[in-house]
């Protein structure tokens, strides 16, 4: 921009559009450009500041960018695996040791409902054998920091034993 400071009367819809273009085309880090929702969040914050100048402080009447709508990408729901796809994934053989490990983690997550971060911190310490022979996992969830009790299916127990043996 030609100057460092922009005064409130200089802010227009054209300015907001130019600011959006500037943020998109002039990244702070070359390897991490600001696009999509990151750009939309910057523009939403800019609009919030302008609304505050208009309604909260009365510095600006009327707000020139009130009708400016930054584009926000809609999140799509991820497709869930069918039980047949989980079985098919579980039966994959002959992969590299690393892909076998990733396969086991993925299938284990499907059988337990635990997130990847929770699976990675899992140890035998978290398991509890019940009187009826079933196994419960008592783990502090990483994201919510809540204690979670998860019953293990036999398939999940087999994967856990296999991974612990290696």
Q: What percentage of residues falls in helices of 4 or more residues?
A: 40-55%
Would you report the number of β strands? 3
Instruction: Give me the strand/helix succession.
Output: HHHHHEEEH
Q: Which value, in Å, is the CA radius of gyration?
A: 26 Å
Largest sheet: 3 strands, antiparallel
Question: Which stretches of 5+ consecutive residues score pLDDT under 50?
Answer: none
Tell me the β content.
Answer: 5-15%
Describe the 3D structure.
This protein is mainly alpha-helical and 166 residues long. 46% of the residues lie in helices and 8% in strands. It has a three-stranded antiparallel sheet, with no helix packed on it. A hairpin with a 6-residue loop joins β2 and β3 (147-151). α1 runs antiparallel to α2 and α4 runs antiparallel to α6. It starts with 12 loop residues before the first helix and ends with a helix.
What features would you highlight for this structure?
166 residues, mainly alpha, 46% helix, three-stranded antiparallel β-sheet
List the helices and strands and how they pair.
Layout: H1 13-25, H2 36-56, H3 83-91, H4 97-112, H5 116-120, E1 127-129, E2 135-140, E3 147-151, H6 154-165
Helix pairs in contact: 1-2, 4-6
